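Q: What residues go here?
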């Protein structure tokens, strides 16, 4: 049996406001297999984003174990966290966060250059991903010239550009209308499966969650 791409054990996060302790995550355990797409379901404010921040190594203050692609990442220093994010993880957010002065293809090339790729193969990879997502005629367009759905497709291509072991998506269609959200999610799931990555997708939408391989629910800090 393959080692999980993600293994959480006893993950906890507590915030303090005045004299009140707020337990956002309580001893969360989770394993995601290679290639598995898992929906993280829960209402707004349930801690989904906090859990993704923990897995994405974006902030400290967590207790417990976070193993990513077999490496214990919870206690890494800043340089180690940056390395794991660069080499193992891809990110898709509710808002695309594309660089406004760069074209669609340049937004997908840039993370590859940061990762150490040569310009020519990085460009070829970007064009391949964007074409797969139906954007072959939009490569030279800047974000302001793209629709919301097209912008989010570029963000999906960017997240997968470096072939991450695990993609983290936080309400990736939450800023889109229902019809566009359905299309973008279908493209996201298809491309993630095509690339062989695993994914953890936070959503509050039961209908969208049902299209993934497995659903886990976050309630009162507990995962079930």
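A:
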């Amino acid at each position: 049996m393959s080692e999980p791409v993600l293994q959480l054990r006893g993950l906890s996060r507590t915030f303090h406001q005045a004299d009140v302790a707020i337990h956002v995550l309580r001893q969360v355990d989770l394993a995601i297999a290679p290639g598995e797409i898992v929906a993280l379901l829960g209402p707004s404010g349930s801690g989904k984003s906090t859990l993704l921040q923990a897995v994405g190594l974006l902030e400290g203050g967590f207790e417990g174990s976070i193993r990513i692609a077999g490496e214990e990442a919870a206690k890494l220093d800043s340089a180690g966290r940056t390395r794991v994010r660069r080499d193992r993880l891809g990110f898709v957010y509710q808002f695309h966060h594309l660089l406004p002065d760069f074209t669609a293809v340049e937004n997908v090339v840039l993370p590859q250059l940061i990762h150490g790729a040569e310009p020519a193969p990085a460009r070829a990879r970007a064009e391949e991903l964007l074409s797969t997502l139906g954007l072959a005629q939009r490569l030279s367009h800047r974000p302001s010239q793209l629709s919301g759905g097209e912008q989010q497709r570029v963000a999906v291509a960017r997240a997968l550009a470096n072939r991450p072991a695990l993609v983290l998506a936080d309400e990736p269609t939450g800023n889109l209308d229902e019809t566009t959200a359905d299309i973008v999610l279908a493209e996201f799931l298809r491309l993630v499966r095509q690339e062989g990555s695993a994914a953890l997708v936070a959503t509050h939408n039961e209908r969208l969650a049902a299209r993934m391989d497995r659903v886990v629910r976050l309630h009162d800090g507990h995962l079930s």
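A: Context that may help when evaluating the design: The first helix runs from residue 48 to 55. The chain has a mean pLDDT of 89.
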